[in-house]
Design goal:
The complex is a heterodimer of chains A (113) and B (113). Chain A is an all-beta fold. Helix content of chain A is 0%, strand content 50%. Chain A is built from no helices and 12 strands. In chain B, strands 2, 4, 5, 6, 9, 10 and 11 form a 7-stranded mixed beta sheet that branches. The chains are: A mainly beta (113), B mainly beta (113).
Chain lengths: 113, 113
């Protein structure tokens, strides 16, 4: 079946550090991949997406590359800020799987000033 | 501005009482979803609807009910049969049901009195 596995948190970094949050997936068919971010007390916001192999999604300094050979979609940012503190969810959808997006369990990121 | 509106932001339920959470979208999206999020955990799908007057159970539908009488609206009722309803409830919508990102409301936090 389809599934998403992401690194467990919490992840704590100092401001301006390099960030990587690992995400791997299992899917039948050709999935689209997403990263969502959730700030405290709010819903999820789409951060970036990639729809086919080797695509790179990017937004607000975050990047993730769709790697079909390693079934991965790791989230990276070169220099994190305190305002990046949030929970990050990796997710996939498969066209053949009617209407569902499969979410990972989320990774809490905390950035120290 | 287009978006998804969930109300109320906070809701309290007495024992044996049914409560209804509202979700309205003006994005002209066909598909709508309800998720439950427990502290420190990912999202679990309760119900989803791909078109008006049609909906399907998700992974944890027991103790919940929905209706989809209008494209814009997808209310969720938490019935007295749901023995552990305390959670953060998120509504989402997407343009259609295949490979499209979902847009989320800001959530409703339900607690038991």
């Amino acid at each position: 079946g389809n599934s998403v596995t992401q690194m467990e948190g919490p992840v704590t970094l100092s401001e301006e550090a390099f960030l990587t949050i690992n995400c791997t997936y299992t899917a039948t068919g050709y999935p689209s991949l997403f990263w969502y971010v959730q700030y405290p007390g709010e819903g999820l916001q789409l951060l970036l997406k990639a729809t086919k192999a080797d695509d790179k999604g990017s937004n607000k300094g975050f990047e993730a590359t769709y790697r079909k050979e390693t079934t991965s979609f790791h989230l990276e940012k070169g220099s994190v800020q305190v305002s990046d503190s949030a929970v990050y969810f990796c997710a996939l959808s498969v066209e053949s799987s009617a209407s569902k997006i499969i979410f990972g369990s989320g990774t809490r990121l905390s950035i120290r000033p | 501005d287009g978006g998804i509106t969930q109300s109320p932001k906070y809701l309290f339920r007495k024992e044996g009482q049914n409560v209804t959470l509202s979700c309205e979208q003006n994005l002209n999206h066909d598909a709508m979803y309800w998720y439950r999020q427990d502290p420190g955990q990912g999202l679990r799908l309760i119900y989803y609807s791909q078109i008006v007057n049609d909906f399907q159970k998700g992974d944890i539908a027991e103790g919940y009910s929905v209706s989809r009488e209008k494209k814009e609206s997808f209310p969720l009722t938490v019935t007295s049969a749901q023995k552990n309803p305390t959670a953060f409830y998120l509504c989402a919508s997407s343009l259609d049901h295949s490979n499209q990102p979902q847009h989320f409301g800001d959530g409703t936090r339900l607690s038991i009195l």
